[in-house]
C-alpha cells in the first residue's frame, strides 16, 4: 500500500457530526490500492468496554485516490479512533501519530473527536433538501403592470443589452405563479429587487425598499404570501459586498470627502474619490466605480446590513438569502449574519455565491450552501460534444462530493446556468437531446437543483447580457415538448425520496467510454440511471440480482436476463429504472 497517499484529519469534511448521534469519518487512499478500511473506535476513558469496529465503504474515487466513508455512533458522544487498512496479506494502522505495521496502544496518539455538541452541529434547512428552485430575473420574466415601467422601457422580447429594460415586475411573477406550480418547482430565487438604477439591480441604492419599477414592499409581501399558499418558498438576492454609486452614504462621501460621517463605510485609499485610467482610488466590485465596496468590518455598516437581512425575513417572511460576491466579504460578518437570520427563521436557507471550493464557508457557522458552478462546469463539459469520457466525468463529480459534509451535499445549490452564464441549451450546441441528459443528471443527483427561467421552454442565449432574454409566453413560440420533459423529471424527483437523499454512486464510468450507469438508493427505493452520451445506438449491460425493476417514467416492467440487465439506448438517450425495497 502506498503510505504517502493515506490522508485523514479530525476536522472539516474528514470528520464531522452529521447529527447529534452520528459522526462521519472519511479516509483517502491511493486509487485501487486498498481493499478494506475499518475504523477502530472507543471511548478515551474506557476503550476496552466501548470498543467497536465500523467497516468503511469506498464512497468515491477520482483520478488518483479512493475515498472511504463510514458512520460512527459513539455511545457517549465522544470517540477516539484509528483506521485499519488492508490489501492482500498486508495490514497497516493509521492514527494521528502516523502509519505503522502494528496496532498502537489506544488511545494515545489516536484521532479524537472530543464531543458531539448539538449547538455546534452543521444543520441545514430540511425543506431545502427536497426543493426544486426556479431562478427569475424580475425585469425579464413578465410585465404585469405597464404603469410602473421606467422611462425608455423597450418592447417585450427585444435584444437584451447591458442597460436596457423591458418592464418585468413582481406583478408579472404573481400573474404566472400557476406556470411555476404546474411545472412543479417549489422554490423561487429572485435576483435583486431593491431600489437601483440598473436592469440587474446589483448596484443597490435602498436595501429596505422594492424598486418602484418592480412594485413596492406590500406587493412583495403579496408575492411571498401567494407563493407560500402554493407551497413555494422565496429566496431573495442580497448584495452586501458593495452598494450602488447612488447609495446615500456613498453620495455623502463624494460630497464631503474625508469629513463625511460615512467615510469609513467604504474602503478608500485617497481623497477626493476618483477613477483614473479605469482604476478607482476606492475598492469596488471588480473595477466598476459605480459599485463601491462596503466595509463590513465597520460596526455601523455591519449593523445596517444585518438589520436589512432580519427585516426581510421577519417582516416579509422570505425563506432565504442568496449572497452576491459572498467570498469577498469577511467571515466575521457572515458568522453574525447567520446568527441574525437563523434567529429570525431557523429554517431560512443561506446560499453564498462562491465559484470555487467553499469548505471554509460550509462548516455550519456561515452558509448552508453555495452556487455549485464546479458541478455545472463538469456536467456541461461532459454532455457537450467534448472529449471527456465517463471515467473523467465520474472522477470530477466524485471529487466534488468529497469536498463537503453530507448535509451540505444534500442542499448544495446545483445549477446548469444562471444570469451570469450562457444558456444551457446554447452551451450544448442547441442539441435538445444533450440538454435532456444534463437535466436528467441534475434532477437525479444529490443536492438542491435550480432551473433558470425559460430553460424549460427552450430559451437560448450566449454570455451576459444575452442570457437574460425576456421570458417567452407565447405558447406557439415555446417548446412545449421540452416543457413536458422538465415537468416529468421534476415530478419524478419530488415523488421519490431516494432521488433527494439517497446515496449516489457511479456503477459504470469507463476510460474511453462516454456511457454511464449510476445509482441512487435509500432504505425504501433503488434507482438506476443509464445514459448514452454518444451519437450511436448502444446497449449497456450491468449485473442485476433481482427481477423487480420498472421504468420509472413509464411504469413498464424491465427484466434482466441470467442476472444481467441489458438496456438499449438511442443516440444521446437515457433510461431510469427503479424498484421498491423491503
From TrEMBL:
Instruction: Mention one GO biological process in which this protein takes part, according to its record.
Output: carbohydrate metabolic process
Under CDD domains, the record lists: AmyAc_CMD (cd11338), E_set_CDase_PDE_N (cd02857)
Q: What is the lineage of its organism?
A: Bacteria, Bacillati, Bacillota, Bacilli, Bacillales
Q: Which residues form the Glycosyl hydrolase family 13 catalytic domain?
A: 135-493
Q: Which Pfam families match?
A: Alpha-amylase, Alpha-amylase_N, Malt_amylase_C
Enumerate the InterPro entries for this protein: GH, GH13_cat_dom, Glyco_hydro_13_lg-like_dom, Glyco_hydro_b, Ig-like_fold, Ig_E-set, Malt_amylase-like_C, O16G_dom_2
Q: Which family does it belong to?
A: Belongs to the glycosyl hydrolase 13 family.
GO MF terms here are: hydrolase activity, hydrolyzing O-glycosyl compounds
SMART domains per UniProt: Aamy
Q: What organism is listed for this UniProt entry?
A: Paenibacillus rigui
Q: Keywords of this protein's UniProt record, alphabetized?
A: Glycosidase, Hydrolase
Q: What is this protein called?
A: Alpha-glycosidase
**Gene3D superfamilies per UniProt:** Glycosidases, Golgi alpha-mannosidase II, Immunoglobulins, Oligo-1,6-glucosidase, Domain 2
